[in-house]
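User: For a benchmark we're assembling, each entry needs the component sequences followed by a predicted structure for the full assembly. Here are entry 17's components. Please fill in the structure.
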Amino acid sequence: MNFSSDNWAGASQPVMDALTRHNHGSAPAYGADPLTDRITQRFRDIFETDVSVLFTATGTAANALSMAACARPGGLVLASETAHLHCDEWGSAEFYTHGMKILPLATTAGRIAPDAVAEALAKYREGSRFGVPAALSLTQATECGTVYSPGEVAALTARARENGLVCHMDGARFANALVHLGATPAELTWKAGIDVLSFGATKNGCWCAEAMVVFNPQSLPHLAIHRARAGHLFSKSRFVAAQFDGYFEGDHWLDLARSANGAAARLAEGIGQGGRARVAWPVQANEVFAVLTQAQIAKLRGEGAKFYEWSREGCEDDEHVVRLVASFETTAEEVDRFVALL
Amino acid sequence: MNFSSDNWAGASQPVMDALTRHNHGSAPAYGADPLTDRITQRFRDIFETDVSVLFTATGTAANALSMAACARPGGLVLASETAHLHCDEWGSAEFYTHGMKILPLATTAGRIAPDAVAEALAKYREGSRFGVPAALSLTQATECGTVYSPGEVAALTARARENGLVCHMDGARFANALVHLGATPAELTWKAGIDVLSFGATKNGCWCAEAMVVFNPQSLPHLAIHRARAGHLFSKSRFVAAQFDGYFEGDHWLDLARSANGAAARLAEGIGQGGRARVAWPVQANEVFAVLTQAQIAKLRGEGAKFYEWSREGCEDDEHVVRLVASFETTAEEVDRFVALL
Amino acid sequence: MNFSSDNWAGASQPVMDALTRHNHGSAPAYGADPLTDRITQRFRDIFETDVSVLFTATGTAANALSMAACARPGGLVLASETAHLHCDEWGSAEFYTHGMKILPLATTAGRIAPDAVAEALAKYREGSRFGVPAALSLTQATECGTVYSPGEVAALTARARENGLVCHMDGARFANALVHLGATPAELTWKAGIDVLSFGATKNGCWCAEAMVVFNPQSLPHLAIHRARAGHLFSKSRFVAAQFDGYFEGDHWLDLARSANGAAARLAEGIGQGGRARVAWPVQANEVFAVLTQAQIAKLRGEGAKFYEWSREGCEDDEHVVRLVASFETTAEEVDRFVALL
Amino acid sequence: MNFSSDNWAGASQPVMDALTRHNHGSAPAYGADPLTDRITQRFRDIFETDVSVLFTATGTAANALSMAACARPGGLVLASETAHLHCDEWGSAEFYTHGMKILPLATTAGRIAPDAVAEALAKYREGSRFGVPAALSLTQATECGTVYSPGEVAALTARARENGLVCHMDGARFANALVHLGATPAELTWKAGIDVLSFGATKNGCWCAEAMVVFNPQSLPHLAIHRARAGHLFSKSRFVAAQFDGYFEGDHWLDLARSANGAAARLAEGIGQGGRARVAWPVQANEVFAVLTQAQIAKLRGEGAKFYEWSREGCEDDEHVVRLVASFETTAEEVDRFVALL
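Assistant: Structure for entry 17:
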């Protein structure tokens, strides 16, 4: 009953198999190998357009380097008040951008309202001594386990692009959003106005496979040098490419995400049944935010369940919002045992 | 006949096996897992002291983050004029230190002379508007394929430490130096005055396993946050630890280094025999720098040999210094074929 | 009727006289001149302790360099939500600290409540991925024209110091606070727990005289090099010192502040009389924040009054908070004419 | 007999008079005042083109902010090995550019040879891991007291511009070069390929008047925000403008430079006469570099002469190169007394 985080999971068997399969012979270093080329082509197929793909070691790096490449002095990054980029990355975006401010926007269930972007743009115009908006960053799926529709993404980016902002998507759980929506990767990104995507595969079945997928290279000058200078250009790049090979083969990545989303849905359903507890936000990806009493929390933990307390937003005195994350490895048995304990 | 670089090699079988072996179940993220703990203990055994160990994605990151943690405004990094840190890392050290200068010191066959450190210390004293020495970085084995003896390391660090400098070793090819010298890891590092080591395992048989090994944590405040903020804290840290597990098991790492060093020695011997060509510097690790004529270079390449031209230092008009790197995968047959072609 | 800002004023006559008086002969550059020494001693007398004094070109530089010298990776600056440092300095603090976040604290009439500091300290503890509090910055007088008592300063800094934070005071209008309180400079700063003060004299009668006054040098290592590296070490430092000479002579600086505060008080009284309008916050320094109707604003501007609209906080539909700043040059006639127009 | 530096001098009388003259009434802050406008227009007249002018507190700031505005990751600044920007500014350029390397070029008597630029461009091409040239910085007059002709400037910038470099001139002693050459400001800058000039007036008779004069604004995006964020935007900008008003009035600035250059020429002539000593480099501005014996140095200092020892380049055992700087205040009497003592 481990619902701590999807990054507690290991690597899926097809991903490990691909690692082993591609470990032979020598290959040019620093991403000039044929496998990295082939996987870049695979990304182009998946996104139905001519993207460039830059692997990084972590999602934090992908987010922060994307911001670095579009940084300007006195620039602002518009992001949700719960954005991982803002709340959970040790000030990485501020560091890599040499001090851009992150302007936290009000959200509903983790999603930025289009009005919030418009208001920020109206308030901080060129010449503002507070700063001037330079980039918009959305998380898909959000940190609250909800998902933006392609139309919602497009609405947010439209206002931003009119004002010259670069539009970034933190896709640490991109696959989970994708299978929930039944949309194509293209519809959810460049067709909806996204310039660059942090494409996360680590949480969903790789051990270390993250990439910046760039749809609009002009908006991110020098991105490749930013990455190299940051120490994020792997010499043996083919081993990241290998993981992606296993990840994409036969739509394995979508199966993994469906499995995790399914476990989360089963969990949410179980929690809601018979008034056991309530969920704080709609469950649209692989995360469930449940409002539990301290007694419930203590009991579950006593029986070995693992999860994090998240916040006290909208809680009664003896309640807490807990975060329950399902991974591709989460089993129906684990879920059912957890629900039964409630 | 691929002598391009040791980072063109794959991962050794025991390293891959360890990756597979440790891929089961869930484990805490961000380095809090038991395997990372166990490997940290292994480092302590190997270095015979209480070290802290921080994995990074690349050697560039390990070098630059080490410098970041001891940075001061107006500080200087003393390093050899051929240091990878200075010449081949896209300005990473300057970036991470917010603009410390690297002061290139004159070298002999890649090794900094003790006098060069003393002269720099005498010239740039506290108050210097050029800058003030803050750190010394040595590469072991050097970028010229030579090795510092423990005594030579100690002599360099002694003057530096008297002046309050932090002493760093870039150990991208640490194992190669170790087996050449027959010294212990402790003798070559903290016993010789090193505060922090970039411990490289990627070139020598892992696919992505680098670590900062810290002997003197007080000299590098906030190193862990520097790493996290840079996006170099792996969520699934156990997979780096797994590689080290296979790497260290049964002194596998030393065997790999011995194999590569042996191939380089065989190559150097073959090149020197019968006056085929001369080597530019003593061959003490896994790199051979050979002075070849353009005709020789053309012929070798025509037959499929791969290597980089390095410099024209000490060359006649039609000569070039080429770099030939042996990896753990280099075979005697490859070496002999190359020599025969000369 | 110019109430735009106190930095629209010129230099007072005694300050200009001092500039002229000290312009003779040659003097060592970069602050090693006897006049800079003498003025440093004057600061020590005024603050009744052994301070170091570093001139800078602007208050923005004094604030940001103070933060730079106590920066740490992943650090947070606690400051009021209206702090000049946060809202009006082009991201200077974030730039100079290489990306520390500013955490805006809730305020009442511009003053941070002690609880806000305590809450931030409780929420963001060592290890927080959002960041860890590293410094507290108070503005005295505040951006809302109010003043902290020495006891209030001490209460705020006490909690901060227990947690190892460096305590900074932005004293762009320090003199105005001082004469309002009738406190000594010492009581308002180091005796109340302040480590470093941005001492502003430009707004109050100099043309360019700002200084970092350091009470606790250990908390700000390398501050002098931070300043020099930022290009804020004047070669002809004696001309800043000269301004301070005229500024301090015969308590001229306190007279200037009393004059400005008096004009503001007269303005506030006039505005309040007969229900002409209301002031948003108590007037304790040289700034009046008045809630005016659009009709009043239009009329005043039509008659040549100059001032900025500030916010719409607590306003009815047709109201606006305007900021009216008195300088040492503001006359009773200007004030009365403005009031009469209301 | 004070030949320490021209920044030991005070302000000239016309400059002080202008400061006093313009100190009346209120004026918009942050450079929006009419006098700043008027002086900007004066710069346009002097440079015969449409420049933008940004005042800074120091020449170090003007140099470093110019570099900041054209910085790119992994960029190199080409500058002479004796450049003030490199040797005497506390790492300011590296700091403001977030870690660009300065590549020191070989010089003859302080002047970069055109070949040195060409060689650097050939060696460090796009993709170089050492870095890629992004800017060229020349000092005029050089740190060795010599002067580039307009043709020499044009030759250096031509190669740089072909390769997309931004061309900067450090004009701390621009006026001294100008009067030596009898060229126009336009001929010496934009007509010779310069994009941005650090225009120094402090050393030559102001107390604090430095400006970035921008000929090619597209090459320096966001320069104004770089300056503001660095704390180099004076609130009472008109007082810098006032100094320039006095400085430019009736070609006062050229008179000041002529006076200083004349004193230096007289000094050089006296030193050379009768074999008293030799000068190290041609004296073309207001600096004399003389090769003196230790005995001469001791005697001169014993009699109260002030100057700095510079280097031991080209010296016999008991010799030293000393730097003797004449300012606008240096008198013939001082010079003659110094010569007589030799």
